[in-house]
Design goal:
This protein has helices at residues 32-40, 54-67, 121-141, 156-160, 166-171, 187-201, 216-221, 239-257, and strands spanning 4-9, 43-46, 71-72, 75-76, 85-92, 98-102, 107-111, 146-150, 208-209. The protein is α/β, with parallel strands linked by helices. The protein has a single domain, classed as Rossmann fold. The protein has a 5-stranded parallel sheet, with helices on both faces.
Length: 258
């Protein structure tokens, strides 16, 4: 029986992600989880959703791991048991995004800016890295192979000045530079404090691809715009970008688990 590649993440992972900047563009090219599953000879289950933060990414994986293997009268009543999971990848997002559940079915909603979120960037960083740690601890407890991947920068956009979303630029007429939200604190001081936080977690987090101030999109693709993204208006991976991501994660998997 073929193993399963289980992934979650934001728009860089979402199998149905569309370009807000180019709404008529056909973005149905294979995304990296599908491409990676083919390289690993696994089936793919992709829980990624555009706009999500790290709460959703961790929670969606946790719920799948803990709820799907439950048994009823000694028999599994769901099709995927943990012994079929060959690899789990958390494609982590920005630390300041907010996720919350509502209603009896626990549907998820997401907020890019921390409008409904108390705290500061240091607290949000602690929160996200605790999701890293909880995800890793859960995988280890279930004897599951896993990888952390920082898909997009955790915090640096918030410190530099957070630009409007593609939707706000296209539909609300906001300007990427003029309408960026500036960080009001001491940037040099907070960056040093962020570095200390990462140093505290460094001995605790294993098998993390891109760490501290690194991220996959910048480390692999280079500064935007580049040949691996949709356009100068949309920095999401194009077909070539998704293939490069899949190749990179496959090499990391072989190095780590072969």
């Amino acid at each position: 029986m073929r193993k399963v590649l289980l992934v979650s993440g934001d728009s860089f992972t979402d199998p149905f992600n569309r370009s807000a900047s180019h709404p008529l563009l056909d973005c149905s090219w294979p995304k990296w989880p599908e491409l990676l599953a083919e390289k690993l000879d696994m089936d793919c289950i992709n829980l990624g959703r555009s706009g999500t933060g790290n709460n959703y990414i961790y929670s969606s994986l946790r719920d799948f791991i803990l709820k799907h293997p439950k048994k009823y009268n000694g028999k599994t009543y769901t099709p995927i048991h943990n012994d079929r999971i060959g690899l789990i990848i958390a494609g982590w997002s920005q630390g300041f995004r907010t996720d919350w559940q509502f209603g009896k079915y626990g549907r998820w909603r997401h907020e890019r800016m921390p409008i409904k979120k108390d705290g500061d960037i240091l607290g949000w960083l602690h929160e996200s890295l605790n999701y890293y740690l909880d995800f890793q601890t859960l995988c280890n407890s279930e004897a599951l192979k896993f990888m952390h991947v920082q898909m997009i920068p955790m915090y640096i956009e918030y410190i530099r000045g957070l630009p409007p979303t593609e939707q706000q630029i296209i539909y609300d007429g906001l300007d990427r530079e003029k309408d960026s939200v500036s960080y009001s604190g001491d940037k040099a001081k907070v960056l040093k404090e962020i570095e200390k936080i990462y140093d505290d977690y460094d001995p605790l987090i294993d098998n993390c691809l891109f760490w501290k101030n690194e991220s996959l999109n910048i480390s692999l693709f280079g500064e935007w715009p580049n040949h691996y993204v949709i356009s100068e208006a949309d920095n999401h991976p194009n077909a070539g970008g998704h293939e490069l991501i899949a190749q990179t994660l496959f090499k990391h998997y072989e190095k780590t688990y072969s």
